[in-house]
Amino acid sequence: MTLRLIPIALMATALFAQAPGHFGPRGMAAGKTTAIQSYLNLTEAQITSLQQLRQSEAAALKPIYQQMGPMRQSLRTQEQSGSADAATVGKLVLDMKSLEQQAAPIRASYQQQAQAVLTADQKTKLAALQSAAALMPAIHEAGSLNLLTPPAGSEGGPRAMARGRFGH
User: Fold this and answer.
1) How confident is the model at residue 31 (pLDDT cuts 50, 70, 90)?
2) Does residue 54 contact residue 24 with C-beta atoms inside 8 Å?
3) What are the φ and ψ backbone dihedral angles of 118, each rounded to 5 degrees?
4) Over the Cα atoms of the chain, what is R_g?
5) Does 17 have pLDDT greater than 90?
6) CB atoms near residue 97 (< 10 Å)
7) N or C: which end of the chain has fewer CB within 10 A?
8) Largest Cα span, the chain
9) Residues ≥6 apart with Cβ < 8 Å to 92
């Protein structure tokens, strides 16, 4: 019975080890908004508002993420121990899921506020961008099979090739 929970716990560890949310400042250079600013034709005032909202969101989520940190570490410790306690792993996974559920409405609220900063035309363009984002897994896989050419200006070289043609 305990052996059946270990693969689940390992998958949960991988899931929760990811940064919360699908998009955001994690992994994006601070202040780098030129592509989205150009695509949506955002004003400087809109960029400032969006950045302030992002900072407020981070502050609102910080207590939740601070609770999750030790839980992630405990899961890693259990995973590496070779004799993981299924009850402990299960409790950690459920506790982390509960915290993630607490974070979801906070993220949704800030996303709604961010979208409220946009004009109707910008919201239409954003919807197209959201549709394109749903294709990212297929795009990355097509790139790894050499079916697509990376976009102009994307990083190249041996390091990028080791990660795949599209840098992931």
Assistant:
1) low
2) yes
3) -85, 155
4) 20
5) no
6) 13
7) N
8) 57
9) 9, 71, 74, 75, 78
| CB within 8 Å of 152: residues ≥ 6 apart | none
Residues 143 and 164 sit within 8 Å (Cβ to Cβ): yes
- The structure tokens listed for 106 are 């906070």
Residue 23: which H helix or E strand, with range? Answer: none
Q: Given pLDDT bands bounded at 50, 70 and 90, which one contains residue 167?
A: low
Which sign does the torsion angle of CA 24, 28, 34, 39 carry? negative
d(CA 97, CA 92): 8
Residue with tokens 């697509």: 148
Token code pair at residue 17: 């080890």
Residues recorded for the chain: 168
